[in-house]
């Protein structure tokens, strides 16, 4: 399946809507984008709707008249098929990410010492 290239702004909107990082990676933990007429991304959201990649649920009273958008199944397929591969990480980068994911509240140096004792 071939996908039409999109402007960077629109790719960013799709990634953000799904909770992904700037390279399109991470867990898709949400599916929403809120914006309204006059914002700098509203026209991009409408263009994504016209392309079938997003759906506009219209202005929402709860959101002071801003529109609620979600990414369609086609949009999710576009994202998963076109995002660049995950970068290769060095051993040090993997270890630092393990520290960030630990949420232990210690400094990196303290975490390294504790990790050395427990492994």
Task: Provide the descriptors you would attach to this structure in a database record.
alpha+beta; about 10% strand; about 120 residues
Task: Give your account of this protein's structure.
The protein is of the alpha+beta class and 119 residues long. The chain is 45% helix and 12% strand. It contains five helices and three strands, in the order H-E-H-E-E-H-H-H. A three-stranded antiparallel β-sheet has the order 1-3-2. A hairpin with a 7-residue loop joins strand 2 (54-59) and strand 3 (67-71). The longest helix is centred in the last third of the chain and has 12 residues, at 91-102. The radius of gyration is 19 Å and the shape is elongated. It starts with 7 loop residues before the first helix and ends with a helix. The model has no long low-confidence stretch (mean pLDDT 92).
The count of β-strands is 3
Total helical elements: 5
Strand order of the largest sheet: 1-3-2
Q: How many strands, which pairing sense, and closed or not: the largest β-sheet?
A: 3 strands, antiparallel
The helix/strand order is HEHEEHHH
Helix content: 40-55%
Oligomerization state: single chain
CA-based shape: elongated
Task: Give the strand content.
Answer: 5-15%
On the 0-100 scale, what is the average pLDDT?
Answer: 92
């Amino acid at each position: 399946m071939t996908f039409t290239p999109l402007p960077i702004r629109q790719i960013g909107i799709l990634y953000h809507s799904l909770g992904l990082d700037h390279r399109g990676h991470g867990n898709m933990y949400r599916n929403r984008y809120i914006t309204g007429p006059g914002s700098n991304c509203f026209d991009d959201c409408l263009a994504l709707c016209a392309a079938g990649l997003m759906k506009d649920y219209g202005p929402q009273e709860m959101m002071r008249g801003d529109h609620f958008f979600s990414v369609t199944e086609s949009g999710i397929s576009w994202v998963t098929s076109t995002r660049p591969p995950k970068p290769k990480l060095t051993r040090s980068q993997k270890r630092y990410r393990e520290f960030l994911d630990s949420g232990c509240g210690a400094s990196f140096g303290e975490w390294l010492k504790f990790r050395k004792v427990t492994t």
